[in-house]
């Protein structure tokens, strides 16, 4: 718990540094440019297709009754664009996470290592290709989980539990690899994920709940559609900054845990190497 809280406060303090704020701008510009391009090319066609799909009488009646049951009947007039935003939002979140992981996290790791872990040897157990595969594979699994669990979101308790859990799992999978790629060997990384998997998942889930906050801006209803050109860039920057904070949190936690692992006494003669279990374990990792 002490390592969990200590790394949280250190990450929070680092967020106020101009260099960290500047790091959030590169992913923002990239995702913002991609979003603007896709909006320009495909928004109207996608909206027309969704409106045609919603024109089915039974489907529209069912959605109207559901909106009335949750006191949101006024959204019927803007149902198609709001639904399209809701469908696109998970893709924006995933792209923001991957952009932060690939563009900003290496610089964050160097910054934290220089200031706190200058004596920690770099053993280069991860590669950029491995980061790509880890990120893309985990993102596809997370999006599949979102699609599969989508009907459960209509149950009030589950809508505030399932999405943050999925985002938390994805964030921990992506960030832990990148936080340890330069310093830990593969065996050390697997051992740390085995020992700390619940704390690492906890960091991811809490980051997932923080990432759910920007979604509240769409709760303003019809005005969200009118203000979408302003709200979308704001939401993207918020997601980006939250993932920057998550990268700092994971980096402080992971490098401190790695330093503690290497400081442990070597096993006595006749006993298996300390990390042998990590390389042969069949336990599922975070």
Order of helices and strands: HHHHHHHHHHHH
In whole angstroms, the N-to-C terminal distance is 18 Å
Mean pLDDT, all residues? 79
Structural class: mainly alpha
- Low-confidence residue ranges: 276-286
Q: Roughly what fraction of the amino acids lie in strands? A: under 5%
Estimate the global geometry from the Cα principal axes. elongated
Oligomer: single chain
The tally of helices reads 12
How many domains make up the 3D coordinates?
A: 1
Helix content: over 70%
**Rounded radius of gyration (Å):** 21 Å
Structural overview:
The protein is built from 12 helices and no strands. The protein is mainly alpha-helical and 286 residues long. The protein has one domain. The longest helix is centred in the middle third of the chain and has 38 residues, at 79-116. Mean pLDDT is 79; it is low at 276-286.
Briefly characterize the structure:
The protein has 12 helices and no strands.
Keyword list:
286 residues, elongated, mainly alpha, 76% helix
Task: Give a topology summary.
Layout: H1 2-14, H2 18-23, H3 25-54, H4 57-69, H5 79-116, H6 128-149, H7 156-159, H8 162-180, H9 186-212, H10 222-226, H11 228-263, H12 276-280
């Amino acid at each position: 718990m002490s390592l969990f809280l200590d790394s949280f406060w250190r990450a929070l303090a680092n967020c106020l540094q101009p260099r960290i704020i500047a790091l959030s701008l590169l992913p923002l510009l990239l995702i913002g440019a991609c979003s603007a391009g896709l909006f320009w090319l495909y928004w109207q066609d996608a909206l027309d297709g969704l409106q045609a799909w919603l024109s089915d009488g039974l489907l529209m009646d069912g959605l109207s009754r559901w909106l009335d049951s949750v006191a949101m009947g006024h959204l019927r007039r803007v149902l198609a664009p709001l639904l399209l935003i809701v469908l696109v939002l998970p893709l924006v979140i995933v792209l923001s996470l991957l952009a932060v992981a690939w563009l900003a996290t290496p610089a964050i790791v160097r910054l934290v290592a220089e200031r706190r872990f200058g004596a920690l040897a770099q053993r280069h157990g991860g590669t950029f290709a491995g980061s790509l595969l880890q990120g893309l594979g985990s993102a596809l699994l997370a999006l599949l989980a979102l699609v599969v669990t989508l009907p459960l979101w209509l149950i009030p308790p589950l809508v505030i539990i399932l999405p943050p859990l999925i985002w938390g799992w994805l964030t921990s999978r992506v960030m832990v690899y990148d936080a340890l790629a330069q310093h830990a060997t593969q065996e050390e990384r697997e051992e740390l994920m085995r020992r700390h998997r619940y704390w690492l998942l906890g960091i991811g889930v809490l980051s997932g709940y923080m990432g759910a906050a920007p979604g509240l801006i769409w709760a303003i209803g019809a005005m969200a559609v009118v203000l979408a050109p302003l709200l979308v860039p704001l939401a993207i920057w918020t997601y980006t900054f939250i993932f920057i904070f998550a990268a700092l949190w994971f980096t402080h936690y992971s490098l401190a845990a790695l330093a503690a692992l290497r400081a442990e006494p070597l096993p006595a003669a006749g006993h298996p190497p300390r990390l042998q279990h990590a390389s042969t374990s069949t336990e599922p990792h975070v």
